[in-house]
Amino acid sequence: MHYESELREPLILGDKTYHQITEDICRPIEGKANKWWWIAFTIASAALLWWIISVSYTVGTGLGVWGLNKTVGWAWDITNFVWWVGIGHAGTLISAILLLFRQKWRLSINRSAEAMTIFAVICAASFIVSHMGRPWVAYWPLPLPNQFGSLWVNFNSPLVWDVFAISTYFSVSLVFWYSGLIPDFAAVRDRAKTKASKFWYTILSFGWTGTAKNWQRFEELSLVLAGLSTPLVLSVHSVVSMDFATSVIPGWHTTIFPPYFVAGAIFSGFAMVQTLLIITRKVLNMEDYITIYHIDMMNRIILLTGSIVGVAYLTEFFIAWYSGVEYEQYAFINRATGPYWWAYWSMMTCNVITPQLFWSSKLRTSVFATFIISIFVNIGMWFERFVIIVTSLHRDYVPSSWAMYHPTWVEVGIFIGSLGLFFVPFLLFTRFFPVIAMSELKTIVKSSSSQAKKKGADNHGH
Amino acid sequence: MNYVLSNRARMISFILIGIGLISIAASFMTHSHQAWSNLLHNTFYFMVIALCGTFFLALQYAAEAGWSVSVKRIPEAMGAFLPYAAVLMLIVFFGNLIAGNNGGHYLYHWLHHDLYDPASPEYDKIIDGKSAYLNLPFFVTRMLVYFAVWIGFTLTLRKLSLREDKEGGQAFYKKAKRISAAFLVLFAITSSTSAWDFVMSIDTHWYSTLFGWYTFAGLFISGLSVIGITTAYLVKKGLMPWVTEHHLHDIGKFMFAFSVFWTYLWFAQFMLIWYANIPEEVTYFMLRFDHYRVLFWTNFFINFITPFIVLMTRDAKRKTNTLLIVGVILIIGHWIDTFLMITPGVVGEHWHIGWMEIGTALGFAGLFMFVMLNALAKAPLLRENHPMLQESLHHSI
Fold first, then answer.
1. Over chain A, what is the mean pLDDT?
2. CB-based contact A255 B273, cutoff 8 Å
3. Is A237 in contact with A265 (CB distance < 8 Å)?
4. Is A256 in CB contact (< 8 Å) with chain B?
5. Which residues of B touch A364 (CB under 8 A)?
6. Which partner for A392 in A222, A235, A251, B178 could form a disulfide, CB atoms 3.0-4.6 Å apart?
7. CA A227, CA A209: separation in Å to the nearest integer?
8. Which pLDDT score is estimated for A369?
9. ipTM score of the complex?
């Protein structure tokens, strides 16, 4: 028999029955979108349009329209790429690692976090493709048999490992997300009132009938995918970090990079989940499912990973001094006091200081404070990548080639536009897909809902 | 139910300690250079195992874990070794300092005075650059701060746990949770800095930002293995009837997961240094790869392949015998890993592992066992008043 301590908070509020859960979660799909959704969708579409224009201009004209130069060969493109990949880490962490740790609170948030993961990875990939300059040869990093003689990809290059790591991550996350959606699609299908929605949800639900055999296969698949995803949570950002750490560039070549990048990715991923879910739960009236307790738990993960990142920053700084290598020492002094000092100190403030505010349980359980701090973390983690990439490059070994980097309107357009590339599908997701994994959530009604807690308390009293 | 330290267990501990003393004496007579390194290696190793007991405990509190309540007495008992480890560490450090000042070999190369004198032919600019951190007074201060923090928190958590036994209620649990969070913050800093101090500074020129986390990840497995072995032993003796295969499964999962995590960090540190091939960094691995090759690969295979294959299946993690066997293998494996971190920096190419090295390790193991089992015998094996107790007793996965 499963037993929960009275110290545990309920995970579903409002004494929901199974039917009410279905009703609450299907409501946004079955009703009409409200004014706020349309406003958000319009803004997101405008941003997406801006992205299309900027990318088309880049591809049509050439990479010269960006602010890159011979010294700073990577800047906003790779910063944005790493930022988006990092954001894409929360989904798998929630569905795989928190599953291993039996954290049931993941059930209300896993669906939307996984959706976020998928859209974020698409945004990340878009930067890789666009920074190639010639997207029509984007298949070249794949080890395909070819007619170019003995031309083959360089397996020694971490950039090639990255192609494998990200595409594996994307495929597994997509399958994991979609397979979880199947029973929920079937529920939507069975309730559908119009012919069109019946038709589409029938196709999407793959003929799910909810038999014991269906569920058995579903469970087995989930277990296998969870097992596959767990190492992926660590591997993807480790490989991304190796893009930098394998090179002999002060500020890049440091052994702590793989785990520190992973911690940073989870940190930024959860910040983005908070930003999105705080809005989503309000707009879709999901406060009974995404409770203050859920927000508190995510804030604790932000506090933990933010502290790990903070320790890593200080370690890097200390070891740079300790190493006695003057180039290494200069790279860090330059970060903190050079022409990009403002980026460094924005990063330090947003990533090291703000998450420490979450030691206060008052702030951890405040929706408003969480929202503000999550925005700070999103900004801070963008600056982290900018600091790592640009400040390490812009003053290289030869002072005569020192240069500054200034983004052009095209790069700004691609970055802001990528937010549109992210939000358009996310908003569509909230309209057409069940945003909470209702079939899975129903498994904890008996143990962790508010009425189960009351019952437990009654029994305790007897 | 209580554990009583049997005469047999006491006898075994004393025999092991005796073997240890003989081995230490013999190794000082035959190869005093490595004898110091053996002492440092074993003191550090068992110190961190003890520390991992407190870390595990704090982790369980901070994460509000329920399942582990039924085995919490074991990590509590492990922490009891910390004061002994602290005394041993001070003896080893100052003993070696005195020996070094009298013409012997320093464990820590940076202790040589000549390195800092620009007039001397021994002058070392790089080490001189580190002298703001690597100097005797600051090092000793740091060492004392580590011991004070670690022992202080260990004793506090133990006291709260014993008072909870007597008085009950949720207050002790809540207090322990807050204290654990504070400990974890300090542990996050001291686990890295102590690894730099006690271990990384032996190879005084060398540096690696990952070193602290790498050391911690490896030694946490040894700590988990001690928890696993002790649990399995007590279950086999029938002293922990409330511990089921579900609890063993969770301990097994921890051992499995952290072994993979250790391998990940091992690979990250090795691969990045190998790939960049910068002379200052790569010498560290070249010495180990060229002159310790068998151990180098043994380390990797024992600590990765064994737990990966043996603990892969669900059934394996749920058996006392597998936990016992894998636990012992991992403790030996990470002892080898720690040997590779410490010994090459002290003795260079001239090393060996013979009966004296093994004997020294057995001596330390005997002392650790004796102290830990004594602490275990001092309190009931189940924390009857823990607010999460029922969750742990009903634990089923």
1. 91
2. yes
3. yes
4. yes
5. none
6. A251
7. 26
8. 95
9. 0.93
> By C-alpha distance, which of A401, A248, A406 is closest to A339?
A406
Q: Which residues does chain A have within 8 Å of residue B388's beta carbon, measured at their own beta carbons?
A: 5, 7
Taking the C-alpha atoms of residue A312 and residue A325, their distance in angstroms, rounded to an integer, is: 19
Question: Buried b / exposed e across B115-141, counting CB within 10 Å, b at 16+?
Answer: bbeeeeeeebeebbbbeebbeeeebee
Q: Per residue in A128-175, pLDDT tens?
A: 999 988 888 888 888 887 776 667 888 899 999 999 999 999 999 999
Tell if the CB–CB gap between B213 and A259 is shorter than 8 Å: yes
Q: How far is CA B40 from CA B31, B199, B335, in A?
A: 15, 9, 12
Q: Where on the phi/psi map is residue B135: left (φ > 0), alpha (ψ -120 to 50), or beta?
A: beta
Q: Which residues of B touch A262 (CB under 8 A)?
A: none
Instruction: Please report the pLDDT score of residue B103 as a whole number.
Output: 81
Q: Which of residues 261-320 of A touch B (CB under 8 A)?
A: 307-308, 311-312, 315-316, 319
pTM above 0.80, yes or no: yes
Nearest CA in chain A to B277: A248
Domains contained in chain A, CATH given: 18-452 (1.20.1630.10)
Q: Does B130 contact A at CB distance below 8 Å?
A: yes
Judging contacts by C-beta atoms under 8 Å, the chain A residues touching residue B268 are: 238, 255, 257-259
What residues 354-393 of chain A have any CB closer than 8 A to a CB of chain B? none
pLDDT in tens, A51-79: 999 999 999 999 999 999 999 999 999 99
CA A444 to chain centroid, in Å, comes to 26
Tens digits of per-residue pLDDT, A73-107? 999 999 999 999 999 988 888 888 888 888 888 88
